[in-house]
Design a protein that fits this description.
By secondary structure, the chain is α+β, with helices and mostly antiparallel strands. The chain has three helices and five strands, in the order βαββαβαβ. The protein is globular and about 35 Å long. The mean pLDDT is 95.
Length: 115
């Protein structure tokens, strides 16, 4: 699998889940925090931001990128993962600069002023 290119200094990964994969997502979130020491956001069991499913966020940087992407790809067990940089331009970050592991989802880009 081809991973997104590492071109930026800071990134977010958003892992998507639903009621049937809540336990799996919770365990993966705990592994990311305990094994990798990355900052992880709360488990959102409601829709937030542009995200079309429940999700949680992982923050990481460009130095961690090349190690993290294969790790999360190996452990995501079918969950979709959005990878995007944090540049300050939310629309471009979630659209033009974004990459996916697993099935891409349609984001609600209208919250960023997209048509």
């Amino acid at each position: 699998m081809a991973y997104p290119a590492n071109k930026f200094s800071d990134y977010h990964a958003h892992l998507y889940f639903d009621e049937s994969t809540l336990v799996q997502a919770t365990e993966l979130r705990d592994r990311v925090y305990n094994q990798l020491g990355f900052h992880v956001g709360k488990l959102n069991t409601r829709l937030v931001g542009p995200h079309p499913k429940w999700s949680f966020q992982i923050s990481f940087n460009g130095e961690q990128f090349d190690t993290f992407l294969p790790w999360i790809d190996k452990h995501r067990n079918g969950l979709s993962v959005l990878i995007h940089p944090v540049t300050g331009d939310d629309l471009r970050d979630h659209c033009e600069y974004a990459g996916w592991l697993g099935q891409p989802l349609t984001l609600k880009l209208s919250i960023f002023g997209a048509q």
